[in-house]
Design goal:
This protein is α+β, with helices and mostly antiparallel strands. It is built from four helices and four strands. The strands form two sheets. A two-stranded antiparallel ribbon has the order 1-2. A two-stranded antiparallel sheet has the order 3-4. The longest helix is centred in the middle third of the chain and has 10 residues. The termini are far apart.
Length: 126
């Protein structure tokens, strides 16, 4: 039978079995190595309430603590909520991480500055 994925859809190498975790969305029991996990960092309170708390606070520079959550998704919930995408056979072999939106903007802005055009190494020979 044809093999769909190089790792058979799990991350367990050399281990017999792995503990299960619950999907954060639907509470399905899914093995920890198969689950899609994301790390969520969020403010405990929203911006309007945060402004009110800072105004009423005695301390000048008090930082409100953040909420740190590790969220596990089963494969079907991760696909349904667009956390991961279905990829075709050729793209499944690509193992490098996808480009993050917003990363590398400083590099693009640096390249667009006036007077800096010939310094990237692609200019005329000296």
């Amino acid at each position: 039978m044809a093999k769909k994925r190089r790792n058979n859809g799990t991350d367990r190498k050399g281990r017999g079995n792995v503990k299960n975790v619950r999907c954060s969305n639907c509470a399905r029991c899914v093995s920890k190595d198969k689950a899609i996990n994301r790390y969520l960092v969020r403010n405990i309170v929203d911006n309007a309430s945060q402004r009110d708390i800072n105004d009423a606070s005695v301390y000048d520079s008090y930082e409100l603590p953040k909420l740190y959550l590790k969220i596990y998704y089963c494969v079907s919930c991760a696909i349904h909520s667009h956390i991961v995408r279905v990829r075709n056979k050729q793209e499944r072999k690509n193992r490098e991480p996808p480009r993050r939106p917003g990363w590398g903007q400083r590099d693009r802005q640096r390249d667009k500055r006036p007077g800096q055009a010939g310094q990237s190494g692609g200019g005329a020979a000296k």
